[in-house]
C-alpha cells in the first residue's frame, strides 16, 4: 500500500515535471542528474547491500536482538567509511565523468555544464539514501515493512514543493529539483532513524572494524552489485546511447521509464521485499519443498498483476500520456515519441516480475555470484542489441524514433535474464515450475488477452475524448477505459480460476492479532 502511494505521488510529481520541464535541454540534463545517484543507489544501497545484509542480519537475529544490533552497527560504520570518500570523489571528477556517461552532450556546452552542475548537486543523495537503506533493511528483516516503504513518499513530496515554488523557467526548475533530491535524502534518513528508534532498534555510530561478519557482507556485496542491478546497468547504458540521439531522447526514455516502473515498482519490488526475509527463513529451516512452493506462488501472483499491466501500457500509451502529461512544455509530439518507448518497455514488465522472484531465490541462499555472472551476459546483450536497433532505425530513416530501439533492447534483455536465471536455479535444484503454476499462467494469459481486446475497442471508441477537452472529461474517459478493462480482467481471472478474488484479498489482509509480524507467505494465496 505504501509503495502504491509512493508511486502515485511520484506520478503526480512527474506530471508537474513534464509540464514545467517538457522534453528539452534542461529536462535532458536533469534526468541525467537524477539517474546518476539513483543508479548507484539501486546497485549498491537498495540492491547489493540490501540483498546481502538481510540474510546475514536474519541469521544474527537467531542469536538475539543485541547480536543483530551489533552487526547492524558494524555494517553502518563500514558503509559510511566507503560512501563518504566515494561521494566526494565523484563530485570532484563529475566534469570528466560526464564525458563518459553522456558523450553526446559534449557538442552542446550549455547542456553539458548544466548536467555537470545538477549531478554534483544530486550526488550526495547516494550517501543519505544508502544509510536509509540500511535502517530500512533492518526494519524489514524484523517484519516492519511500513516505514521503509513509506519513505519514498518524502522524496516525491519535497520535489513537488520545489516544482511549485521555483518554476519561472526550465533551468531554474531543474536546479530546484536537483536540490530537492538531496534534501529529500536527509528527510528520508531522519524518518527511518525515528522509525528504528520507535521500534526499539536504534543503532549507534561506532568505529569501523573488519569483523568476520563484515568481511562476509563485503564478499556478498561485490558480485551482488551487478547481480541485483541488471536493470539499472541496462538503463545506464540506455542513457549513454540516448545522449547520442537528437535532443529529447533522454527525456522520452525517462518519462517512459517512470510510467512502466509504476507496475514494476508496486508489484515487483513489493513482492521481492516481502519474499526475501520469508524465503531466507524457509531456506534456513531446511525444507526445500516449501521454498519451491513460495517461489512458484510469488511468480504466479506477480504475473497475475504484471501481465495485464503490460498489455494495458502496450495498447494505450498515447491516451495515458496525452491525459497525464500533455500540457505546458510537454506537447503532442513529446507524447507520441514517449509512447513508442512505453510500448516497448511494457514488454519487459512480466519478465521483471519473474526475475525479481528468481534473484531473491539466489540471495535467500546467500548466492550473489550466480546472478552476477548472469548479469555480465545480459548487459553485453543489451548493449549490442540497443546499438543494433539504433542503427536499424537510422538505416530506415527513423532517426527521431531510434530511442524506441533502446527500449526494445531493454525488454529483450529482461526476458533473456529470466531464461538464464531459471536455468541456473533449475540446474541446482532450486527451481521447478509446478503443475499449478503452468495452469495458472495459461489462465492469466487468457484473461489478459480478453482484457486487451476490450481495452483496444474502448480506446478506439473514446479516442476523441483523450485530447482537446476539459481535463475532467479526459480523465473520466481514461478512467472509464482502464476501469472497465480492469473489471473485465478481474472477472475473467475469477471465472477461469487464474485467481479467485477471495484469494487475492486474503493476501492483502493482516490476520487479527498479528501486529507487526511478517505478512502471510505468498504461498498461502
Give a structural overview:
The chain is built from 20 helices and no strands. By secondary structure, the chain is mostly helical. The longest helix is centred in the N-terminal third of the chain and has 37 residues, at 25-61.
Short précis:
The chain is mainly α. The protein has helices at about 1-20, 25-60, 65-90, 95-100, 110-120, 125-140, 145-165, 170-200, 210-225, 230-240, 250-285, 290-315, 315-325, 330-345, 350-365, 370-395, 400-425, 435-460, 470-495, 500-510.
Strands, helices and their partners?
Blueprint: H1 2-21, H2 25-61, H3 65-92, H4 94-101, H5 109-122, H6 124-141, H7 146-165, H8 170-198, H9 212-227, H10 230-242, H11 249-284, H12 288-315, H13 317-324, H14 332-346, H15 349-363, H16 369-395, H17 402-427, H18 435-462, H19 471-496, H20 501-508
Helix pairs in contact: 1-7, 1-11, 2-3, 2-5, 2-6, 2-8, 2-9, 2-10, 2-11, 3-6, 5-8, 6-7, 6-8, 7-8, 9-16, 10-16, 10-17, 11-12, 11-14, 11-15, 11-17, 12-14, 12-15, 12-18, 13-14, 13-19, 14-17, 15-17, 16-17, 18-19
Amino acid at each position: 500500500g505504501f509503495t502504491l502511494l509512493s508511486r502515485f505521488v511520484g506520478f503526480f510529481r512527474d506530471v508537474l515535471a513534464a509540464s514545467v520541464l517538457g522534453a528539452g535541454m534542461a529536462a535532458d540534463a536533469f534526468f541525467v542528474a537524477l539517474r546518476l545517484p539513483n543508479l548507484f543507489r539501486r546497485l549498491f544501497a537498495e540492491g547489493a547491500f540490501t540483498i546481502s545484509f538481510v540474510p546475514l542480519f536474519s541469521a544474527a537475529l537467531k542469536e538475539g536482538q543485541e547480536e543483530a544490533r551489533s552487526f547492524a552497527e558494524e555494517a553502518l560504520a563500514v558503509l559510511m567509511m566507503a560512501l563518504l570518500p566515494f561521494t566526494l570523489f565523484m563530485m570532484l571528477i563529475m566534469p570528466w565523468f560526464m564525458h563518459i556517461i553522456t558523450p553526446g552532450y559534449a557538442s552542446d556546452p550549455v547542456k553539458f555544464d548544466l548536467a555537470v552542475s545538477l549531478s554534483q548537486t544530486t550526488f550526495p543523495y547516494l550517501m543519505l539514501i544508502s544509510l536509509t537503506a540500511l535502517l530500512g533493511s533492518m526494519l524489514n528483516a524484523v517484519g516492519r515493512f511500513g516505514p521503509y516503504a513509506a519513505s519514498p513518499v518524502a522524496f516525491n513530496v519535497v520535489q513537488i514543493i520545489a516544482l511549485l515554488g521555483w518554476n519561472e523557467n526550465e533551468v531554474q526548475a531543474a536546479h530546484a529539483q536537483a536540490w530537492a533530491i538531496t534534501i529529500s535524502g536527509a528527510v528520508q534518513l531522519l524518518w527511518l532513524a525515528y522509525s528504528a528508534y520507535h521500534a526499539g532498534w536504534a543503532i549507534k555510530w561506532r568505529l569501523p572494524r573488519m569483523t568476520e561478519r563484515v568481511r562476509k557482507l563485503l564478499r556478498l556485496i561485490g558480485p551482488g552489485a551487478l547481480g541485483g542491478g541488471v536493470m539499472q546497468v541496462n538503463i545506464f547504458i540506455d542513457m549513454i546511447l540516448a545522449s547520442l540521439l537528437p535532443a529529447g531522447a533522454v527525456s522520452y526514455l525517462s518519462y517512459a521509464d517512470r510510467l512502466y516502473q509504476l507496475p514494476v515498482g508496486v508489484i515487483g519490488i513489493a513482492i521481492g521485499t516481502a519474499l526475501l526475509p520469508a524465503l531466507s527463513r524457509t531456506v534456513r529451516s531446511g525444507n526445500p519443498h516449501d521454498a519451491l512452493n513460495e517461489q512458484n506462488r510469488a511468480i504466479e501472483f506477480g504475473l497475475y498483476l504484471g501481465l495485464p499491466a503490460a498489455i494495458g501500457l502496450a495498447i494505450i500509451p498515447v491516451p495515458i500520456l496525452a491525459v497525464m502529461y500533455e500540457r505546458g512544455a510537454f506537447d503532442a509530439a513529446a507524447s507520441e515519441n514517449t509512447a513508442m518507448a512505453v510500448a516497448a518497455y511494457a514488454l519487459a514488465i512480466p519478465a521483471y516480475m519473474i526475475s525479481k522472484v528468481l534473484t531473491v531465490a539466489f540471495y535467500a541462499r546467500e548466492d550473489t555470484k550466480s546472478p552476477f555472472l548472469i548479469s555480465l551476459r545480459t548487459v553485453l546483450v543489451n548493449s549490442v542489441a540497443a546499438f543494433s536497433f539504433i542503427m536499424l532505425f537510422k538505416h530506415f530513416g527513423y532517426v527521431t524514433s531510434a530511442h524506441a530501439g533502446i527500449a526494445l533492447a531493454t525488454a529483450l534483455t529482461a526476458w533473456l535474464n529470466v531464461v538464464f536465471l531459471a536455468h541456473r536455479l533449475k540446474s541446482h535444484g532450486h527451481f521447478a515450475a509446478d503443475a499449478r503454476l503452468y495452469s495458472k499462467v495459461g489462465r492469466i494469459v487468457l484473461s489478459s488477452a480478453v482484457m486487451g481486446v476490450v481495452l483496444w475497442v474502448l480506446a478506439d471508441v473514446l479516442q476523441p475524448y483523450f485530447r482537446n477537452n476539459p481535463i475532467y472529461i479526459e480523465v473520466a474517459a481514461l478512467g472509464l477505459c482502464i476501469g472497465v478493462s480492469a473489471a473485465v480482467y478481474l472477472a475473467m481471472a475469477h471465472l477461469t480460476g487464474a485467481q479467485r478474488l477471495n484469494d487475492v484479498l486474503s493476501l492483502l489482509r493482516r490476520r487479527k492479532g498479528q501486529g507487526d509480524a511478517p505478512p502471510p507467505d505468498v504461498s498461502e494465496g
